[in-house]
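Suppose a colleague, Dr. K., hands you the sequence of a protein chain of 702 amino acids and asks what its three-dimensional shape might be. Before reaching for any lab equipment, you can write down a predicted structure in C-alpha cell form. Begin with the sequence itself:
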Amino acid sequence: MHHKYPLFRPFLFHVSGIALSYFFFCRFPDYRGWHPAVQFLPFLLFCAMLCSHLFIRYRTRSLFGWLLLPLFFCLGWISVQCRCQAVADPLAHATGDKTFYRAELCAPPVLREKSVRLDVRLKAVRSASGWEPLREKCRLTLARDSASESLAYGDVLWFCAALKPVAPPLNEGEFSYARYLFRHGVVRQGYLASGQWELAGPHGGNPLLRLSAYWHRQVFLLLKESRLNAASKGLVSTMLLGDDTLLDPETGAAFSKAGVSHVLCVSGMHVGILYMMINYLLFFMERNRRLRQIKSLLHVVVIWCYACMVGLAPSVTRAAVMFTFVAAGGLFRRKTMIYNSLLTSAFVMLLVQPMLLFETGFQMSYLAVWGIVSTQPALQRLWSPRNRLLRYLRDVWTVSLSAQLFTAPVSMFCFHSFPLYFLLSNVVVVSMAPVVIGMALLYMVVSFQPMLSGGVAWMLDRLVWLMHGGVAVIGGLPGASVGPIVPDGVQLALLYMLLCFTLLWLQRKKVCWLGMALSCLLLCLGDGVCRAVANRTDRELALYAIPHHYAVEYGDARSTMVFTDDPEALLEGRFDYQMQGSRLRHGRPLSCGAVPDSLSETWVCSGGYFQFGTCSFLHLEGRFCADSAFGPVSFPDYLLVGDSTRVRPEKVLSTLVPSCVCVLPGVSQFRVGHWRAACAERGIPFVDMGKAGMLRLCIDRQ
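The predicted structure, expressed as C-alpha cells, is then:
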C-alpha cells in the first residue's frame, strides 16, 4: 500500500501529531516544559536521517523512511503548540481596560441585522510609554451604519475599546464559541458603538486577498441590484458566492431539512460543476497533446479565478488545491491517482494551517470525496441500465449514497439529525444546480445588455422557483428528518471502524474483516443501549446558567418539566442555545408541554419558591420583606440571586438559612463580591454561576 500511496504514512503521523498536540494543550494549557526538548528533537531526527541516507547500506534503506515518520509527527505537534501559545500568550497581559488600538481588517466584514462583525489583526497599542507594536487577532462587533457597511478587507482602523476574553460555555453540551474562535486565532472580542472608531485608510492586507475581496463585493452588488426577484437573489448569491446575507431563513431551513444544505455552501461540488462546464465547453481541445495541456492549464486558471471571486473561502480553496493537483497530472502528462491527489492537497493545507483538521467543513469535504472515490464505482457495478435517463439517475444516486455514507457519522455527531429522503432531494438539486450556476454566470456576462439580461433573469427566476419548490415538497414529507440522534465520541469512532472494515471485507472477501465489522457494530449498539438505560433510570435536576434568567429542569428521559422566570422565551426557543446540548446528551425531551403524571406528585411551586422531591429553590425578585412568614421557605436548599434582586445580602441571610447561594449570570461583579463576602462570613456555600456554570443534581434513581 505504501508503494501506491507514498504519502499515506507521513500524512497519518502528521495528523496524529496535530490531534494529540491540540488535545494536550486543551488539557494542560499552562504547561511549557515540552518546548525546548521537542523543538530540538526534529533537528536530531534530521541528522539521523542524513546519516542513514549517507552511511547505511542498501539492505537497511527503509530506516530512512521510518525516521521520516516521527519527524512529521513532531512537525504537527510543534506547529499546533506554537500557534496555540502565540494565541494564548497575549491574553495573559490583557488588562480589560479601555485602550487605544491600531488594527487592520484581516477578513471581509460580515453584515448582520443590526451590527457588522469584523476580524482584525491588532498592529499597535498605546501604553504609558507610547505606541507599542502588537500582533494579535481579535473579533470586533460594530454598530451597523453607513460607515461600518463600507469597510473592506485591508482597511486600517483606530479605535478605543475594552477587549475582553471570549467567555467559555457555561452549560453542559453548549457550543464552545471560545474554542471555535481560539482555533481561528481569536481570544478577545469587543463592541464598538458609532463614534468609537475611525478609518485610517485602506493601506494593509495581502494584495491577492484584497483583490479577491474586491471581486467578491462587486459580484455580490451586481446580484443584489439585478432584475432577479428577492428569493432568487438570496438563493443565487448563496449558491454562487457563499454569501447568505440575502437568503431567507425559511429557505435555508427547507434545504437543511431535505438534506441538501451542502448546495448552499460553496464547496468542492461547485468547483466540480465548474470543472465539468469548462470540460464540455473546451471539448475541441482533445485533438492533440499540446491542446490537452493548454486545456489543463485553463482548468487551473478558471478554477482559481472562481476561488478568488468567492473570496478564497476555505472550502473552495481546498477543492481548488485538489483539482489543481489533478489538472497538473494532465499538464505534465502524468497519470494521477485520485487518492494521492486527495492526500497531497490535505497534507499541504495542514502544513500551512494545522487547525483546519478540527473544522467540520474540512472533515466532511474530504470524507465525501473519499467516499465517492472508494465506493461509487462498486455501487455503479450493481446496476447497469441501458436507458440513458436511468443511467443518469443511477450515477446521481450512487454519488449521493457514497458521500452520505462517509459523512453521515460526522453529520449526526455535529447536527444530531439525518435526512431520510436525501437520495430523492439530491436528484432535484444535483440536476438543477449546474443549470442554475451556469445561468447565473451567464447573467453576469450579459448584465450590461438590458434585453439579454432581462431574458436570462426571467429564466433564472423560473429555475430557482422550480428547484426551491421541489426541495420544499421533499422537506415537507412526513419523517423527512430523523432526530435527535446523539452519538458520542466512542460511537463515532466505532462507526468509522465499522465502515472501513466493511469496505475491506467487500474488497478482499476475508472473514476476519467481516468479524471485526460485526464486533464494531455490536460494541456501538451496546454503548448506545447502556447510555439509554442510564439516562432512563436517572432522575436529575439541572439549573442552567442563562444570562439574566433562570431555568430549572427536572425529570428523566421519559418526561421532563422546566420552571423559568420567562416562560415565553422558553416556548419561543430563546433558551435552546444554552439548554439543548445538555438535553441531547442526557436524552431529555426537547419540548416542554403539560406536567406529566409521573412527576405530578414530586414537585411544589408557589411564586418564586419551587420544590422537587426533597430539593427546594427560592428565587429572590425585586424587594425582600423580612417580616413575611416563610415557613419551610425559610430553609431553601438553593437561594437564586438574579440581577432583578434589589436587597442587601445581610438582610436576606438574617431571615433565610439556605444550604447554598447561587448568583445567576448577568449580575454585576460588585454585587457578586458583596454576596460572596456575606456568605463567607456566615459559612454558607456560594456559587457564582457566571463562572462555575450550570449545576446538575441527581435527585433519585427509579
